Amino acid sequence: MTTIKTVSIGAVVWVVVCTCTSVMAQECLRVESVPPKVTVTLKGAEYRSLVAPGQYCSLVPGRTYRVTASLDRFESRGLKLRLPEDGGQVHFSGDRAGRVGRSVVIPGWGQGSMGYAANAFEAVLSVGGSGLKFWQSRDRYLTAKREYERHSWLADNATSENVRIREVAETNRFRNNAELYRDDSYVVAGILGWQMLANVAETYLLARPPGAEILEDGTVQLRIPERTGFRAAVRSLFFPGLGQKYNGDHGRAVLFQFGTMVCAMFAADYRLEYRLEESGYVSAMERFRTATDVVEKERALNESRAYAASRDERQRDMYVYVGGAGVLWLLSVIDAAANGGRGEEPGFFGMETSYRSGTARGGVVVRF
User: Fold this and answer.
1) Helix axes 294-339, 250-290, angle to 10 degrees
2) What is the radius of gyration, based on Cα positions, of the chain?
3) Is the pLDDT of residue 361 over 60?
4) pTM for the whole structure
């Protein structure tokens, strides 16, 4: 079996296609590393992972596999590899578009298809939670809209002046509430879109292929950079928690991502309640100004004071959660930058382009 000679400092992983000697010959991917402990995953009809040294067997010529190598402090990147059935050139390519498309259709599908189960689970929770919140806010808006239409019809078909006045008041109240609920649904839709965009952006970054360089011996060498604090901070600047996922710290990622999202949702809830209380206050003051009876004026004045107190309390709560979301966002950026690497050690992921079925003429080499 021929191997690819490399000269490098750091970890070296050889992943070589060979024919194992056994009762039945089968295609194998042998993995060796210096030093050991480099994790190499192979995803085809099934998902398998090993820590070098070791080997994958039962490979099927003509089938497409995804080969990914990962090492501490380095980004994890991979490629699709297809072994030709009757000899010829090894076909390898990036698969970013397909992975991103999956995450657009079903959040977390793209991450899960690449073997990032934790990332996929977090994407499902974040998008699913914000989607449930959007459905709730949209349902409140539609309910208020239906009530507005019902009372509007009752006002138009009232049989007495007293009934008409009462239904007009109810029509105005539900129309105002429907407008507030509609605006709230827009805010929650923004949070949902933000989480969905984070899901797609994460898939886009995880599926990023290495930079390719063809060497003189025909080996295609693909560069894998070390993780850096700058890249982590940029990710968290746009999406809290994404920098922590990049650094491999899913505990902190959950804290910052879901903490920021929950604070944003509570802020949206208190914003809605603040606007409802403000609407009630304005309505009570209008009744106070137009009332001719002393008792009615006193009742309207007391209601306006209660609405004002509740409005101010909701406004304070809204500011607290807006501030909490901002603090968590800022801490996410600082934490991602502090726990990221410095990018001083470049890595390499290379593949030989020649392969013959049943022989040992080609292979894969991963160098960090």
Assistant:
1) 160
2) 30
3) no
4) 0.77
141 & 54 share domain: no
Burial of 175 per CB tally in 10 Å (0-12, 13-18, 19+): middle
Residue 335 lies in a domain: yes
pLDDT for 273 beyond 80: yes
Check whether residue 124 and residue 144 sit in a common domain.
Answer: yes
Q: Is residue 129 part of a domain?
A: yes
The secondary structure of the chain, three-state, reads CCCCCCCCCCCEEEEEEEECCCCCCCEEEEEEEECCCCEEEEECCCEEEEECCEEEEEECCCCEEEEEEECCCECCEEEEEECCECEEECEEECCHHHHHHHHHHCCCHHHHHCCCHHHHHHHHHHHHHHHHHHHHHHHHHHHHHHHHHHHHHHHHCCCCHHHHHHHHHHHHHHHHHHHHHHHHHHHHHHHHHHHHHHHHHHHHHHCCCCEEEECCCCEEEEEECECEHHHHHHHHHHCCCHHHHHHCCHHHHHHHHHHHHHHHHHHHHHHHHHHHHHHHHHHHHHHHHHCCCHHHHHHHHHHHHHHHHHHHHHHHHHHHHHHHHHHHHHHHHHHHHHHCCECCCCEEEEEECEECCCCCCCEEEEEC
Same domain, 100 and 55: no
> Would 211 be classed as within a structural domain?
no
Most confident of 146-155, 203-212, 249-258, 323-332: 323-332
Q: Using CA atoms, how far apart are residues 268 and 260, in angstroms rounded to an integer?
A: 12
Number of domains composing the chain: 3
